[in-house]
Design a protein that fits this description.
Layout: E1 7-14, H1 19-33, E2 40-44, H2 51-58, H3 77-84, E3 91-95, H4 96-99, H5 105-117, E4 121-125, H6 131-134, E5 140-144, E6 147-153
Parallel strand pairs: 2-4, 2-5, 3-4
Antiparallel strand pairs: 1-6, 5-6
Helix pairs in contact: 1-2, 3-5
């Protein structure tokens, strides 16, 4: 079974015309669809479509580590904590396309899986670029394009 077959769309939004409208949709998604048990949250979509804006609006307490707005946290907290085997943050952000310039996707996937085992939340931009490595469906996936789709993984027995 592939990633798509194990998921279902739970909400669809038209692509907004402004960052403000995108932030409103993001807050609505958080209040209606994000659960405490959602530890792996993926974002998919083309570069510059607004994924980082969504992450910032949905999780204002999270430090973004990508370079969209000249944000460049080095060393990457998730990798550093993985190396130490001590996950200090409750939530980590990863932009796969940005971080792959510094670390292999295999290493990024191992760090994410290890943090999940430690019961930490991981928010991954460009989740589709690392799914083949971690082989775990996102509990919640936000697919961004002409529409914004909120996708929940099906519960498997």
């Amino acid at each position: 079974m592939n990633m798509i077959e194990k998921q279902r769309i739970i909400a669809t939004y038209d692509k907004p015309d402004s960052e403000k409208e995108l932030s409103i949709i993001a807050k609505e998604i958080v209040s209606n669809f994000v659960c405490e048990n959602d530890k792996l949250i993926g974002f998919t979509g083309d570069p510059k479509i607004g994924k980082s804006i969504m992450v910032e609006a949905m999780f204002p307490e999270v430090s973004l580590v990508n370079d969209d707005e000249n944000i460049n946290i080095r060393p990457f907290p998730l990798i550093e904590d993985y190396k130490r085997d001590n996950f200090r943050q409750e939530t980590y952000h990863m932009d796969v396309m940005f971080e792959a310039a510094f670390n292999s996707k295999h290493k990024l996937g191992q760090a994410a899986k290890s943090a999940l085992k430690a019961n930490k939340r991981i928010i991954i931009e460009h989740f589709d670029k690392i799914y083949h490595v971690i082989k775990i469906n996102a509990h919640l996936n936000i697919s961004m394009g002409e529409k914004i789709k909120v996708i929940r993984s099906k519960i498997e027995s």
